[in-house]
Specification:
Elements lengths: L2 E5 L3 H5 L1 H7 L4 E5 L9 E2 L1 H10 L7 E3 L8 H6 L6 E6 L14 E2 L3 H8 L3 E7 L12 H4 L4 E7 L19 H14 L1 E8 L10 H22 L1
Helix pairs in contact: 7-8
């Protein structure tokens, strides 16, 4: 399975997930933006242009976005879609806030900007936040069976037993997350899955944090490739 890996913080290398992918002889398209300015939490127009220009085309369906600071990449990646789609977001935060600085795209505003700027987006289901859904809404899948869906997973939706992130976290288990994802795969056409929620040593990640994140990433990779292959 081809994976697109964004490198900003170096977390995937530090935890050993990147080397694990390479050892498995898996196809990895690595985009290294460790020196890109104007892209941490907030993404200015210049950085957004650099990022979009670097996207491989066609895009791999499985995308690893680094930490939640770069979750706005979901919006930029979804702009590459050519047909209507739904967004299912699993996240401890809604990410639909107004941008704090003059309309600059951010990790907290990207859902709102996607709703305003992407005419192909049909609707958004946000699972995890206190003001969102606790699960896929009853009847939602049945009404949209076979339609296209873009799935975005921030691991901060999970309990700290399964993920260690830079942000406040939820209480979902990895099995609960996989269960929701499997239902989406069974009922809809999943066009892409992106995952964020890493933590790097530069932001205080301990060896235990890195181990847990690596193990969860490997489990998610194995699970998702079963459906995406």
């Amino acid at each position: 399975m081809n994976s697109l890996v964004f490198q900003f913080s170096g977390a995937y290398a530090e935890q050993g997930f990147l080397s694990w992918l390479q050892e498995q002889a898996q196809a990895v398209q690595l985009l290294d933006f460790t020196n890109l300015e104007g892209c941490c939490c907030y993404c200015d127009e210049q950085a957004a242009a650099v990022l979009r220009e670097a996207f491989p085309r066609p895009l791999p369906r499985l995308r690893w976005l680094d930490s939640g600071d770069y979750h706005y990449l979901s919006h930029l990646l979804a702009l590459e879609e050519a047909q209507p789609f739904h967004l299912v977001l699993l996240d401890n935060h809604p990410d639909n806030q107004d941008p704090a600085f003059g309309g600059v795209l951010s990790c907290g505003s990207w859902v709102k900007e996607m709703q305003e700027q992407n005419p192909l987006l049909r609707d958004v289901v946000s699972i995890g936040p206190s003001d969102g859904q606790a699960d896929i809404p009853e009847g939602w899948l049945e009404q949209r069976r076979g339609e296209r869906v873009y799935v975005s997973l921030d691991k901060d939706v999970m309990d700290r037993a399964f993920a260690r992130t830079d942000w406040s976290q939820g209480t979902y288990s990895l099995e609960q997350v996989k269960g929701m994802l499997e239902r989406l795969f069974r009922e809809m056409e999943v066009v892409a899955v992106d995952i964020c929620g890493e933590q790097a040593p530069s932001k205080g990640a301990t060896p235990e944090d890195l181990r847990i994140n690596k193990e969860t990433n490997i489990e998610l990779y194995k699970f998702l490739t079963h459906f995406l292959n």
